[in-house]
Every structure is written in structure tokens, then in C-alpha cells.
């Protein structure tokens, strides 16, 4: 939708028009009246997400009271709503205050309540006031004294709207369910393909002592709803694809907590939450715009979404002390290794040009899904800078030793060969002895199956 910048004259005219609408509404119903507007600074006050925020507030009121009448209007000064309720005014006011305080983003709501006599009920009548959404101080004081710049206000509003976008993904559409189901399938297929050298599979826990096959089953089960929500976030997103990433990260952080709760605090799939969250989000975004949802379009838009992520999230690591560095930052500072961020920024070339063709070829030759996935896993080991392995060892352990081991099996026929399974089982034992667990490769295998299934 096109948006028009709002002038002071527009705001004053809208205020007067709102007063007149309220008077007509009061006269018509002679009941408690709820008036919903939004606290949004800046020149643009009417966008799809702001209309949805108004609708959210109205729906929350409807959940608690029988509505006698309702009017909605969308103006350049912002979306508004009026509702008539046959309930004592202060009971409605208390409920409105709870709605305004339920979440951080609720601070953007301004829900006025008029009693049956038409009198505005105010928090200040109870000695209360609303807090500033920038500093937490008293809102009227901050506004009167101009304590915050417009840039600060707009920055905070965008953060709050991102939280609202994450919240509204809890209502899942059938399309988001389908996309999310593919992501969960990819998680499950990755951990069930056996033998997976150094990784948790159906036979053993690989080079891990804190997780097993059932840890991954529990973890994957806990993440299904979050994959749905990432897809739904994409479907609802009305901006450029890069602006979707902060919303996906909010959902991803919630998903991490669910994963940890399901595994007793063990990190089984944190990296996969990041990767599949982005993949499902982009698939949803493409679907929502009626664009083709294909392997190519998803990977191309993944690159666009994270453009500049290496510079934004890793370049600053050179200024940190050794003690402050994360594992990924340490590899970047010491060796220039960009890990999965660099892979994503390039559109996951290991998946696009290596893994997907290998998987298709293996399936076309008649290999079972299990054996085709194991074969693809070996192919990924020959071309991916797996930072999980590099963190435990020197980068050459991955770039030289692991690649040589995987390449030897591939050259011997891989899972097509009669002794392919035996060779992979032997490599599994070797990886366990060397404490090598290519978890990053496993994540990319799951992404490969997800894209293959689109």
C-alpha cells in the first residue's frame, strides 16, 4: 500500500474528526465506549502492520466483552476503532489497561474508555500514568520536555513492531503449516540417516556424550510450531526480505528456549534453528507475494536477507579481547573463516552446487532416502568449512583430514558400493576416536532435504 507523510494539520484535523465520531457513537449507543488509536511517532502512521495492531487490540477487547457495535476507519493519521460495550466503565478500563501492558509492543496502543455518561476514564484518576517506551520514565514528562530524538523514537517503535510481527505468527495459516512440516521432516531425516560419521544417528551418539537419538527427537518435536511461525512471519511480512530477519530472530530465540527445555539444557539444533528459520521464513515470504517457491528463489533471497551479515556480526570481533570472543569470532579473527554466515551470504553454494545435485543423482540411481542422505552428507564434508569441527580442532582437521576421509569413500563408490555402509561405519568409529562431529555439515544436509522437498 502507498503511504502519505502526515502533517501537523492532518493530525489536528484527525483529532477533531475523531471527537465528532466519538460523540455520534456515544449518542447512538449510550453505553461504555472504547476508542482505539496508536501511539506512533513520525510522518508515516498508516501501514498494514499498524492496521493489524489495531485489529489485535480490538480482538482482545472482544474476547472479554460482548460488543454492541463497532466502527473501524483507516486514516493517514493512523488506523482507529470504536466499540460499544454494555459493561460498567471502570471494568472495561481495567481490561484495557491490561491489554496495553500485556506485551512490550502493547505500549504502542492507546485505548481510551468512556463511561455511559460519556466521561473519559483516566489512569490518572487512580494515580497512575503510562511509561515512556524509550526510557521507562513518565510518558507525559518525556513528551513535554522532548527528552528523546525522533530517531530514537522511530528506532524503538520499529523494535516493538518487530516483536508484534513475531507475536502475530502464532495464528498459523495452512500454507505456513505445510512449509513448517517440511522443515520438521528435514530435521528428522537428518538425524535418522545412518550411519552418519561422528554424528548422532539411530546407532550411536557419534562424538557426543551429552545427547543421543532421543534428544534429537524431543528437540525436533519442540521446534515444529516455531518453524510454522517463521513461515507465517514470511507470509505476513509486507516489506523487503532483509527486514524479515529481525522478526525471525525473535522467533528463533523463543525456539532455542523450547529446544533447551526439551533436552534438559543440551544444545542439539541451535544452528539448524537459524538456518531452517531463514529458509521457512523466505519460503513463506515468497508464497505471500505469489512468487515461485523454488530451490533457486529461496537461496537467492537468503543471500539478499543476510547481505552484510559478516561485516555486521563478525568484523567487530577484531576489537574484542580473547576472553570476549565467541567460537565463531575466534575462527574469524584468527583464520578469516566466516562460517555459516559467509555461506548464507553467498547463497549456500555448498548446498546449491554440491549437495542438491548429489542428492538428486543418488535418488535417481535408486538409492533409498537413507542411503542418498548419507551419500550427500559425505559430499558436504568435502566442501564445507564446518566450524563445529574447526572449533574443536585446527581448521586443517576439517579442510584436509575430514575431506580426505570422505573423499576416499566417495571415490570407492560411496553408498552405492557393496561395502559402502561398512566404510561409513568404520569412518564413524574413526571420527568418534578423533572427537570429530561435523554438526555444521549435518545442518546443511537438513537444509538440502528441505529445499529438495519444496
TrEMBL record:
GO molecular function, one term: ATP binding
Record protein name field: Probable 2-(5''-triphosphoribosyl)-3'-dephosphocoenzyme-A synthase
InterPro entries in UniProt: CitG (IPR002736), CitX (IPR005551), TriPribosyl-deP-CoA_syn_CitG (IPR017551)
EC number: 2.4.2.52
Annotated PANTHER family: 2-(5''-TRIPHOSPHORIBOSYL)-3'-DEPHOSPHOCOENZYME-A SYNTHASE (PTHR30201:SF2), TRIPHOSPHORIBOSYL-DEPHOSPHO-COA SYNTHASE (PTHR30201)
ATP-binding as UniProt keyword: yes
Listed GO biological process terms: prosthetic group biosynthetic process
Family in the record: Belongs to the CitG/MdcB family.
Reactions mediated catalytically: 3'-dephospho-CoA + ATP = 2'-(5''-triphospho-alpha-D-ribosyl)-3'-dephospho-CoA + adenine; apo-[citrate lyase ACP] + 2'-(5''-triphospho-alpha-D-ribosyl)-3'-dephospho-CoA = holo-[citrate lyase ACP] + diphosphate
UniProt superkingdom: Bacteria
Keyword ATP-binding in annotation: yes
Keyword annotations of the record: ATP-binding, Nucleotide-binding, Nucleotidyltransferase, Transferase
Amino acid at each position: 500500500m502507498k503511504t502519505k507523510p502526515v502533517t501537523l494539520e492532518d493530525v489536528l484535523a484527525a483529532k477533531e474528526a475523531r471527537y465528532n465520531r466519538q460523540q455520534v457513537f456515544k449518542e447512538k449507543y449510550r453505553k461504555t465506549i472504547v476508542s482505539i488509536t496508536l501511539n506512533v511517532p513520525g510522518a508515516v502512521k498508516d501501514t498494514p502492520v499498524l492496521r493489524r495492531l489495531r485489529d489485535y487490540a480490538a480482538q482482545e477487547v472482544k474476547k472479554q466483552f460482548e460488543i454492541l457495535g463497532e466502527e473501524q476507519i483507516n486514516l493517514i493519521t493512523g488506523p482507529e476503532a470504536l466499540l460499544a460495550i454494555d459493561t460498567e466503565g471502570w471494568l472495561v478500563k481495567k481490561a484495557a489497561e491490561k491489554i496495553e501492558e500485556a506485551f512490550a509492543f502493547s505500549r504502542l496502543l492507546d485505548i481510551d474508555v468512556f463511561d455511559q455518561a460519556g466521561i473519559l476514564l483516566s489512569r490518572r484518576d487512580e494515580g497512575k500514568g503510562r511509561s515512556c517506551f524509550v526510557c521507562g520514565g513518565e510518558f507525559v514528562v518525556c513528551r513535554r520536555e522532548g527528552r528523546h530524538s525522533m530517531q530514537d523514537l522511530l528506532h524503538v517503535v520499529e523494535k516493538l513492531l518487530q516483536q508484534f510481527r513475531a507475536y502475530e505468527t502464532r495464528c498459523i495459516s495452512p500454507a505456513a503449516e505445510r512449509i513448517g512440516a517440511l522443515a520438521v521432516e528435514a530435521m528428522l531425516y537428518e538425524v535418522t540417516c545412518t550411519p552418519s560419521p561422528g554424528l548422532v544417528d539411530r546407532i550411536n551418539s557419534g562424538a557426543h556424550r551429552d545427547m543421543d537419538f532421543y534428544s534429537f527427537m524431543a528437540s525436533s518435536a519442540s521446534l515444529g510450531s516455531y518453524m510454522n511461525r517463521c513461515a507465517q512471519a514470511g507470509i505476513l511480512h509486507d516489506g523487503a526480505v532483509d527486514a524479515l530477519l529481525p522478526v525471525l530472530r525473535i522467533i528463533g530465540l523463543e525456539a532455542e528456549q523450547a529446544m533447551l527445555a526439551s533436552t534438559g539444557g543440551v544444545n542439539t539444533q541451535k544452528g539448524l534453528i537459524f538456518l531452517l528459520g531463514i529458509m521457512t521464513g523466505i519460503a513463506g515470504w515468497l508464497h505471500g507475494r505469489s512468487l515461485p517457491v523454488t530451490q533457486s528463489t529461496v537461496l537467492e533471497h537468503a543471500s539478499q536477507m543476510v547481505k552484510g551479515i559478516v561485516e555486521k556480526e563478525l568484523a567487530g570481533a577484531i576489537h574484542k579481547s580473547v576472553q570476549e570472543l565467541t567460537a565463531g569470532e575466534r575462527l574469524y579473527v584468527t583464520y578469516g573463516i566466516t562460517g555459516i554466515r559467509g555461506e548464507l551470504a553467498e547463497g549456500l553454494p555448498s548446498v546449491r552446487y554440491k549437495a542438491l545435485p548429489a542428492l538428486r543423482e543418488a535418488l535417481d540411481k535408486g538409492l533409498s532416502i537413507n542411503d542418498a542422505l548419507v551419500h550427500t552428507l559425505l559430499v558436504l564434508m568435502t566442501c564445507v568449512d564446518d566450524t563445529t569441527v574447526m572449533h574443536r580442532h585446527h581448521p586443517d582437521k576439517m579442510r584436509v583430514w575430514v575431506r580426505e576421509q570422505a573423499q576416499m569413500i566417495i571415490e570407492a563408490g560411496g553408498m552405492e558400493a557393496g561395502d559402502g555402509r561398512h566404510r561409513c561405519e568404520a569412518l564413524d568409529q574413526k571420527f568418534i576416536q578423533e572427537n570429530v562431529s561435523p554438526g555444521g555439515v549435518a545442518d546443511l544436509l537438513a537444509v538440502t532435504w528441505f529445499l529438495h522437498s519444496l
